Amino acid sequence: MAVRRDPALSGKSSLKYGDALLLVNQYGRDAAWILHCKAVSLLAERYAAIFSSGYDIDADFVRTAALLHDIGRYKTHDPIMHGVEGYWLLTNLGHHREAFVCASHILCGLEREEAVRHGLPDQDFIPRTFEERLIPVIDSLVEFDRPTTLHARVASIQLRYQGNDGYLQKIEQAAEKAQRFMDHVNREFGISMENVAAETLSSEIV
Asked: Has residue 4 been placed in a domain?
């Protein structure tokens, strides 16, 4: 799995974790979703340490972008639109790499037509780099701020959005992408991402 970086978004993260934390707290105002963001970020830091032996990972970026992935929830909890709102918020603040993650973590990526339909720019929002692909998978292993499995997370989402058949079909497709990613890195590194999540978050207070 080669690491490919978009030249327009390449380079080390310019947004520091402390500044990202200030943003989350400013827009979250002690909302419960902040705990989820912190848990995903903590787990991202752990995975970055593991995978850095095989990939050129920008650990600062993956930790910071993971913290900000759900910042759009300050405005809406819609399963797709919170990513759109986060994208525009961070874009307007000049944090373009992190903004892309807000949009591309939705359903493990949005193709151009769907992105435009939801108010995003006319382009694909498909995770391309290893870091961008990693964050939505981590998100699928955290229920609120506690570790879970991909299967249990999908079941939880299916229960929450009963009746929204179009979205639920897309969730199943996204879960297949997440499972393929996990299967690949599990084999390559001789680990279980789900077990790492359980060990990391069960022993930490977020």
From this structure: no
Q: Does 10 fall in a domain?
A: no
Task: Tell me, yes or no, whether 6 lies in a domain.
Answer: no
Return mean pLDDT, the chain. 93
How sure is the predictor about 8, in pLDDT bands with cuts at 50, 70 and 90?
very low
Q: What is the 3-state secondary structure (H, E, C) of the chain?
A: CCCCCCHHHCCCCCCCHHHHHHHHHHHHCCCCHHHHHHHHHHHHHHHHHHHCCCCCCCHHHHHHHHHHCCHHHHCCCCCCHHHHHHHHHHHHCCCHHHHHHHHHCHHHCECHHHHHHCCCCCCCECCCCHHHHHHHHHHCCEECCEECCHHHHHHHHHHHCCCCHHHHHHHHHHHHHHHHHHHHHHHHHCCCHHHHHHHHHHCCCC
**Domains: count for the chain:** 1
pLDDT at position 14:
77
